[in-house]
Structures are given as C-alpha cells and as structure tokens.
Design brief:
2 copies of one chain form a homodimer.
Chain A (H helix, E strand, L loop, with lengths): L4 H6 L5 E3 L8 H9 L4 E4 L7 H11 L4 E6 L5 H10 L4 E5 L4 H9 L3 E6 L2 H10 L4 E4 L5 E2 L5 H11 L4 E4 L5 H10 L3 E4 L1 H4 L8 H9 L5 E4 L8 E4 L2 H10 L6 H5 L5 H6 L24 H18 L6
Parallel strand pairs in A: 1-9, 2-3, 3-4, 4-5, 5-6, 6-8, 8-9
Antiparallel strand pairs in A: 7-11, 10-11
C-alpha cells in the first residue's frame, strides 16, 4: 500500500486524483474513483444536469471524499465558486489560475484548495494564498497546458514549496506513478487513463479514439498566440484549427473564436470531425476499457512492485 | 552502484551519457565524463580543431570508451560518418535521423550505433536497422527536439523495442535519474547539467546563463513550420527569432534561414544578444560549476539512495 501525507490529509486510500475534465468528469466517474479509494473530481462544466445535481449524485453513490474542478476562465466559475461552499465540497482544484481571492473563503469553509500550476512562481503564489497542495502539470497532459513538462516541473516545484505536490501529465500506469513519486510527488493525477474507465460517461467514439491512439496521436493547438494552448487528438478539427491558427491573417482574437462548442461535440456527441478530443501524449498506453477501481488497483500494484524492487538496481 | 545491461555492453561504470552538443561537446568534457565512468560524447560539429584531432585528444586523456554524435542534417555528417570508422570510435549517436543506410557499415566496424529517437515508430526503425540501443529524448531537452516528452516517450518506446532505451530530457539530478530507471530506461543522457561542468569549454557567459536560469527560462523556436524545432534560453536572439517566425509573411524557407551562426556565437563568443543558447527546461536545477566526475557521482549517489529507499513508499 503506497500512502503519503496527502492520503491522511484528504482521507484517501490511494494517492491518486482523477482529473476534473470539462464535459467529461461527471458523478458516476468521480464516485467510482472515490469509492475505490482515490479522489474523484467533478468538472464544474458538468457533462449533464447542474453541478449541484452532480455533487448530490456523487454523495448518493459514495460516502468518500471527492472534489470539484473549477476552470477559472469558464463562465461557470463564479456560480461554482459559491456552490462548493454551500455544498461543503471537501476538495476544490482550480484550472487556469489560482483564485487567490477566493482561497480564504474556501479555506474557511473547510475546503482543501489544490490549484493546477504550470510553473514554480505559480506554485509559490498558491502556497502563499493558502493552498493545501498544488498539482504540477506537464504539457504532455490533455486539455489546457503550459510549456513545462512533468519531468521538469515536478522536481522544481517540489524544491520551491513545502506543501505536497501532485504530479500530472504523462502518467497512465505504474511506471509513471513510481517515477512521479521518486521525482518528489506525493500523489498523481490522471485524466486520459480515466477517460477509458467504464464509469466515464463520455461518448463511446471518444473512448475508441483513446484506445486507438499511438504516441504521436496528439497535437497542441493555440501555441501561436499563447494563453489557451490545448492538447488534443489529431483529427479534422485539430487540422482545421491549426490551419486557421497559422494562417498569415490570423490574430489572437480570431483564434480565440475558434473551436466554440467543440469540447461538447467530442464528449457528448462523439463528433469525429468537428469535436475537439482532449487527450494526453500517454494515450498510446491506454488499451482497455476497465472499471475505475481496476485501473487504480492495477496502477498501484505495478507501482508498488517497482518501488519494492527498486533497490535491485543498486548492486 | 547502479549498473544496467548497457554498462556491460559499452564498458561503463555508470549508465550515463553526456549529450554530444554541437559547438560545445569537445575532447576535455567527453574525456572527463568517460574517465569518470560515464560515456563522454564528442560532437561532430567540433567546438575547436577538427573532429579527428578531438578524437585523438580524447584518447590521450582517457583509455575509456567514448562516442561521437553525428547530427545528420549538418554538412559535417558525411565526413564524420567515414571518420568514425577510420578512427574506430566505440559508439556513435545520431541526431535528426537514423542513418539506417550507414548502420551496417558502422556495425561491421564494431561501432555501437545509438540513434536519438522522437517516437515509437522511429525507435522501431532504429532497432530493425541494427541499433545497439536508442536514446528516447523528450522535448524538455535543449537543442533540436520533437513533440513527445520524456514521461510519455520512455515507457512507450520501452514497450516497443527489445534493445536498451536511454532516457534523455529533463534529467539533471538523482531524482530524474531514478525516475527514468523506473520508467524503464537502462541509462540516462544529460546535456544541460554537463554544460556546467568545469571541463566544458563553452564560453563562461553560457555557463552563467544556465546557472541563472529558472524553470520558465527556455522557449522552443521553429514550431510553426516544424522540422527544426529547438529549445533555447530566452534572450534577444530567441525573441527576434520568434517575432520573425510568427510574422504573417514568414514562410518555412524564410524561417530556415534564421539563426545562421547563432550556436557558434553562443558557445564560442558568449554573445548574449545574438547567440542561441540551447538549454533544457531542467536548467533551473543547475546551480553550480563542478568537475564532471563530481556531477556524475552526485547524481548516482542521490539516485541510489532514492532507489534503495523506494520500498519505504510501500507500507
């Protein structure tokens, strides 16, 4: 059993978070992960129904702790920020910002706040603002990304803060998990691998794209003007996006208007042409649809064997 | 003592390669790394004198095995390809391609050929062509890079080939080394950390830039049109390059002409404005000028302690 400080702090059996993917991370998935001993996380951009309904549904399905991810750039952020207090959600993770102004109110409500950070400076600001931990996320992740990779950001953030560091990006099996712990992480966060969970309600076309993906099946859009870089699977949507992004006449404003509704088209409708299928570079390792509990147990059995056997490297 | 199959195969004490950085990796650095038990690697784009002189100088300084890195896109490649056979160099690493056509001749000359690869498909082709191992390099590396990161490429390449895999990118200390071994690597390759070696002949301004660098001090140029993406430290050169690369009127051809002589200006002249200072995202961890032997011993002492203690994670 791999346990770390963060397990005690958050009441987890396994130091693993399920990424709160917009339009994807609903109650069934989050509850299955939490019930299995990890931290299930709802997206405030709920795939169906309201966030309040999703929170209540998780509580029907499990008595274990769970979280809500609030994407601070999204219109849903303001309502979600109040709702997590009203509903006394145990953990909030934030994306695309720190919500430093709200951290005190959340902390006073007993919420552990864990921002996703893309740099050392952001991790330091999160600690100063009262974060319980930070998620240091590499750009191999699916979805919104920074520029640092997991190998580079995790040890540098660990050196810079005293709070626990959760490693995210490029982890889909026990090898990645064990590597993350030796880099200094106290826990791991996985998105792509949980896309393939049986309890994940995403359209089956999306799951099939993950299972079919290889190492070089993803691409990053939005790098030209920055600020909203996203990693997704290569398809007609991503090709069209990049063509428009890199067209001579493109501007930051014209690019910001691209892709509206494309996440919904991927996750809910499974639209292979017009959908934006967010996924990480580690998609190539995901080969099977499994219950979330099996995913977690398989990862930790492999990681435990690697960590127990690691001393054999030293002769 | 961490030993792996690759140590026996190549005659190394430590499973560590020093990246064969163009204009930087000369005889003094390569010899110091090899003498300390790692694999020192000369760049065929020699920082001073001819490659033949550099090879002979290494042999004056050490009797241990060493390598030559041949950057296949560079004009020096053809001459270097013949020279390594004439001089019976023990190891050749290749960059920006596989040199599959030359692999047989090199193998017949007793040379272990170890290509740098950026994807699973390239690793498979290298194995088929007769490579002794592959270097799976993540885009957190300095210099010419692909798109996959170290966390993503190493396990996927390990699953795809039977030959040993050397992990490169984002490794500068024992944490990165230990993580790489648990990802499945048999050895590690470091460039940025060895830039700070006392025996590295690069201009002192270059070393100072590495020591001063933080986590977000690097940027990747050449992404717009692809084919020649490079990670370097942010400075006037990189800002000008990116401005021209992303200008509406830029073309693949106009971008290919940018930056001529800039590597030399950085490495030899220390030109802070017009030099292109290749460096990895892990620069922020490099804080000291040390002899190459101390760098290697420090990294492996830390990695050994982490690997020996890894079983403590499992309770």
């Amino acid at each position: 059993m791999i346990r770390s400080e963060i397990c005690q702090r958050l009441g987890l059996r396994y130091p693993i978070f399920q990424g709160g993917m917009a339009w994807i991370a609903g109650a069934e998935l989050a509850a299955a992960v939490s019930e299995a001993g990890g931290l299930g996380i709802l997206s405030a951009v709920a795939p169906e129904g309201s966030l309040r309904e999703q929170i209540r549904r998780v509580r029907q399905l499990t008595s274990k702790p769970f979280g809500v991810n609030i994407m601070l750039m999204h219109p849903s952020a303001e309502e979600a920020s109040a709702l997590v207090v009203e509903e006394k959600v145990p953990v909030v993770t934030t994306g695309a910002g720190l919500a430093a102004g709200q951290m005190e109110a959340w902390n006073q409500a007993g919420i552990a706040v864990i921002p996703v950070v893309a740099s050392v400076a952001m991790a330091r600001r999160a600690q100063r603002a009262g974060a319980a931990a930070v998620i240091a996320e590499g750009q191999e992740s699916g979805g919104h990304i920074g520029e640092l990779t997991t190998m580079a950001i995790v040890p540098q953030v660990c050196d810079a803060v005293d709070i626990p560091v959760v490693a995210a990006g490029g982890i889909a099996d026990g090898r990645g998990a064990a590597a993350a712990f030796l880099l200094g992480a106290s826990a791991i966060q996985l998105g792509t691998r949980f896309l393939s969970a049986r309890e994940c309600g995403v359209h089956e076309n999306y799951k099939q794209m993950i299972l079919d993906a290889q190492d070089i099946s993803t691409v990053a859009t939005g790098r030209r003007f920055g600020g909203n870089t996203c990693r997704c699977l290569k398809n007609a949507f991503s090709r069209d996006f990049l063509k428009q992004e890199y067209a001579p006449e493109a501007t930051a404003e014209s690019v910001a208007e691209l892709g509206g509704g494309a996440l919904r088209k991927a996750a809910i409708e499974g639209d292979l042409r017009e959908g934006c299928f967010l996924a990480g570079q580690i998609s190539g390792l995901v080969k099977e649809i499994q219950p979330a509990a099996d995913i977690i147990e398989e990862i930790f059995a492999e990681a435990e064997a690697l960590l127990k056997g690691a001393s054999q490297w030293v002769k």
